[in-house]
Amino acid sequence: MNQLTLILQQxxxxxxxxxxxxxxxxxxxxxxxxxxxxxxxxSRNHARIVKIAESVWTIEDLxxxxxxQVNQYIITNTQxxxxxxxxxxxxxxxVVKFVKSEEDEYQDGFSTQGxxxxxxxxxxxxxxxxxxxxxASGINGKSNDKxxxxxxxxxxxxxxxxxxxxxxxxxxxxxxxxxxxxxxDSIDRLALLVQIHDSGNLELINSATRDVSDQETLATDGSxxxxxxxxKVFAEKVAVQSADTQSDERFSSExxxxxxxxxxxxxxxxxxxxxxxxxxxADASLSSYHWESEGEEELSFFSALANxxxxxxxxxxxxxxxxxxxxxxxxxxRYHSPAVVQQLISVGSSPDGRLAPAENEISILFADLVGFxxxxxxxxxxxxxxxxxxxxxxxxQEVFLYSGTLDKYIGDCIMAFFGAPEPDPGHADxxxxxxxxxxxxxxxxxxxxxxxxxLQLRIAINSGKAVVGDVGSSQRVDYTALGATIxxxxxxxxxxxxxxxxxxxxxxxxxxxxxxxxxxxxxRFKGIDRSVKLYQTKMYEPSGLDVLDHG
Length: 551
Prior knowledge:
Helix content: 25-40%
Number of helices: 13
Strand content: 25-35%
Mean pLDDT: 79
């Protein structure tokens, strides 16, 4: 089976091989074209090559301004292509070549037998390469050199010491940069790419150029890097070195190589004996033809260096993870009990740091300070803040004691829920126990003159389904609960008497111990088209006068 390949010829540049790898292959100035030619004389959609049968290809002009020529004749209709045809588009020439497909060779990457261009690309197992460079033998048939082996071991020890002393990823890369540019004269640019969050994607961590004056022109988004080379290195744990990428059809179709001036490239995986965590990548704008004779030795050094770098990067990743966990812990400890915080950290969160909203069965609790408006009239703003801070500090201990989660403070009201983020079949019991704990604790605080006057709470609890998770914008996110269950609990709090806790029938039916509650009848609430049976508990036995009149 013949495969169509185009040889791209442009004045002042080296010929480039462009495999036609799609049945419909478009050429033009638009980025979505299969062959992007951002040059004068080329239309946005200039021409199209179409495969109409096995080894049969045609070309047609797409209404371009300057037309499409085949063998110096402007084509007006679809024309079949033949071997060695010359296609002209503006100042660009494309020579048609039909080559026999050798699928197995292409996949393995070790042979180009049958192709009419020199093999200048090396693919090697990284473990073998590292041993070769240290041993100074087995490379290019050279004999063992004991002095050279000792010198290289000393170099590696010094490099390892410097890398271990680095306290940041910037320092690690700085050490690598110095070593690479000192040992490899043929390299112009260097990049460190690392997998973050086990996402499978490589992120550019840092990059540098040999000429400091060129550093500002180095794109920080890594668009100049050959992603296909890096991805192959990362996925297959192989070291790659190409002395002339534009003479190798494996790379010639990649836009970064074709139009960004990459002529030679070298990439090795960062691996820690078990996992590949990143890639060390280097390239140059000139072909490194000395790699044909000395390339494997330089590649083995680059690979040995990458192994040392991997250890330092792995240590940095671990430190970053610990820092992130500490930040998460500090954030979560404001809202969750310590036990729940540990569960959240062990389970982990999404890469953007958010806990995705999910439906949970929860019990929601509202605890409101009675008479807060009247109290506020008698206090200064500073005194109001002091009162709420002291009260919330005490009440929150009862929430966390029963593995509750603080949703938010709403003025003088505490909103908390039980049963999320980790499911808990006993969430109703925990919510009620927390409410009783709050009322008992406030009684003790009042007995010890906690504030200038005795304080009282109203507490309402409802149970049911709710959506729980991070909700908000990119600037601000709240971990909160949403839904009808929460709305009803907020309404219920308004009919509760001072120093009491009222619960819904749903919560009551879920309790393992119901004897502390008594039925206070059915109520209707604004926005809810059904009556709700409520139950109430007190810290003392109720009398007839204590029961709410809800007729």
